[in-house]
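We were asked to recover a plausible sequence for a given structure. The inputs and outputs are reproduced exactly as logged, with field labels preserved.

PROBLEM: sequence recovery
POSITIONS: 323
GIVEN STRUCTURE:
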């Protein structure tokens, strides 16, 4: 028995020895976001960290980006990472075109760039990982059409610039019309990406358009602003709210019944898959890829999916990671 045990240990040691002897050089990958500290991006960064750990201890991660929504500062963060010769960049575009020069500069330097959440399709980024934002808006529109039927009179809260928000609004309008052909979009207001401004704009919208019985917030901030506006005007129960994402304020308002539902994306999976793709792109194989000088990544990108969350399905997101 002892001889068999010794023999087994010798075999295991033989297999393990090359791995132990070969110290892999450290690689560092950066995530760049347009709103550092956001719960949504913390979920995404948690996914990135877990993916890096799954690859190996030699892979390190960094989180960069401004504390306020600013695509110009995002672009600067990418340029700084390029200057320090980072091994790969994962970025969500706060504005579709502002980041194009910085992303293209990284690609020219042979630094792989994977976009997630919000794409920069005009850039030379290798791949996009995230929600099919048109489909996400479509699912939200269908749900509101089912809630309110042909009597739906909807106000939309969003702001111009980000490519993903335009796609969500387009999808919402299509989904709403499919389920409820008689439904109407009454007004669209610009919240400038701010909860307080969303409340101000939506309060004015509701006062000017008494027929509105539903509000769609195209990103994470309008949901709480919509609830505050409805509450201040005494319209609870008369105006249904479809929020976006699952920040704690949104979940708490769903539990209170002030928000009926929210579009739940999968930011953790975005960060996880984007890290895996950035690593793959940084390691070309002997098989030529579709991106000269980089490893293999899917050209069409990866859709991480959505579902409409309500009181019964949102509780799992009550403990977001913090960085």
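RECOVERED SEQUENCE:
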């Amino acid at each position: 028995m002892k001889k068999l045990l010794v023999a087994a240990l010798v075999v295991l040691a033989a297999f393990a020895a090359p791995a132990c002897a070969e110290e892999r050089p450290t690689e560092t990958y950066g995530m760049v976001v347009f709103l550092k500290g956001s719960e949504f991006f913390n979920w995404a960064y948690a996914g990135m960290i877990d993916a890096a750990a799954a690859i190996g201890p030699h892979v390190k991660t960094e989180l960069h980006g401004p504390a306020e929504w600013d695509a110009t500062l995002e672009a600067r963060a990418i340029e700084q990472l390029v200057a320090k010769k980072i091994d790969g960049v994962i970025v969500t575009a706060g504005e579709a075109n502002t980041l194009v020069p910085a992303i293209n500069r990284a690609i020219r330097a042979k630094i792989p760039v994977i976009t997630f959440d919000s794409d920069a399709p005009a850039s030379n980024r290798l791949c996009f990982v995230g929600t099919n934002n048109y489909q996400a808006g479509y699912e939200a529109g269908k749900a509101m059409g089912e809630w309110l039927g042909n009597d739906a009179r909807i106000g939309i809260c969003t702001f111009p610039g980000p490519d993903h928000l335009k796609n969500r609004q387009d999808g919402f309008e299509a989904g709403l019309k499919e389920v409820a052909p008689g439904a109407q979009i009454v007004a669209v207001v610009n919240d400038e990406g701010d909860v307080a401004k969303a409340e101000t704009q939506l309060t004015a919208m509701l006062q000017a358009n008494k027929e509105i019985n539903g509000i769609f917030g195209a990103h994470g901030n309008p949901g709480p602003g919509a609830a505050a506006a409805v509450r201040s005007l005494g319209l609870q129960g008369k105006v249904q709210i479809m929020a976006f994402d699952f920040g704690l304020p949104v979940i708490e308002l769903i539990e209170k019944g002030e928000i009926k539902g929210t579009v739940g994306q999968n930011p953790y999976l975005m960060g996880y898959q984007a890290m895996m793709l950035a690593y793959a792109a940084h390691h070309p194989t002997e098989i030529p890829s579709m991106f000269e000088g980089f490893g293999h990544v899917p050209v069409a990108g990866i859709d991480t999916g959505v579902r409409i969350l309500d009181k019964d399905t949102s509780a799992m997101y009550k403990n977001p990671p913090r960085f």
